[in-house]
Amino acid sequence: MATETVSSSATMATKTVGSTQTVAATTATTATQPLKGITGAIAMFFMWVLDFLYRFVPYYPVDIMLLTLIVKILMFPFTYQQIRSSVMMAKIQPLVKQIQEKYKEDKNKQGEELMKLYKEYNVNPLAGCLVLIFQLPIFWGLYKALLNYHLYNPNFNGVSFLWVPDISKPDPTWATAIIVAIATYFQFKLSQTPTSDPKTQSQMKMMMIMMPLLFAWIAMKMPVGVAIYWVTFAFLGVIENRVVRYMVEKELDKKGFNQKVV
């Protein structure tokens, strides 16, 4: 009787251990399933880049900054076109309005003159939007990579940075959210294109208030690793914007514009 009891208990224990191992294996497999779609493939690539950078700089916060810098450098030709188009359209807007007013009764002639103007300054009114659409999958893939990296690489868990004990989790304090809000504010403030249109100015002011609050709210719920990426991205974006505006200013000077791009 005792032997049967022991045998039964041993069998149950074996089944329990086997069941636990199966669940653990299933959970691990599910946690590390490849991300799907185009952005998933991009995210997997960025995670590989993080692994590569970690071999040379074994500290993930710095690796995230380096990864963001690499993405910025690779995307600069496209970002340049986006910023240049925005700045150039703002500068030639008075000329656009003159043409629209002069040929308001002849839409065909108006279209021809506008095309000549755009060709003269080598600008496409839709370039900014098209470039932005092209960039979105890359930025979304990078965001997904940082959001899911701790599932694929256990070494990412428990990494501290400044006051944050674990960059794979949200900051338990308000500090990160505040820094993200400040970075977002200055990015929008220093990157916006000046305009004399009151309606556009009002919309810009609203964006400068709403966007920092939105990103601060997101930062409170997202891993600090994502916040490191965003603050680095915003800082580099301001520098990038200033550089491109300087380049456009020089280009406009050659075409006879005396007004500075500010």
* Shape label: elongated
- How much strand? under 5%
Uncertain segments are 1-32
Number of helical regions: 9
The number of strands is 0
Instruction: Give average pLDDT, whole number.
Output: 75
Q: Helical percent range?
A: over 70%
Category by helix and strand content: mainly alpha
The H-and-E topology, N to C, reads as: HHHHHHHHH
- Major sheet details: none
Give the number of domains: 1
Distance between the termini: 92 Å
Query: How large, in whole angstroms, is the Cα Rg?
Result: 26 Å
How would you summarize this macromolecular structure in one to three sentences?
With 262 residues, the protein is mostly helical. The chain has helices spanning 2-31, 37-56, 60-91, 93-102, 107-120, 127-152, 175-191, 198-221, 224-254. It has one domain.
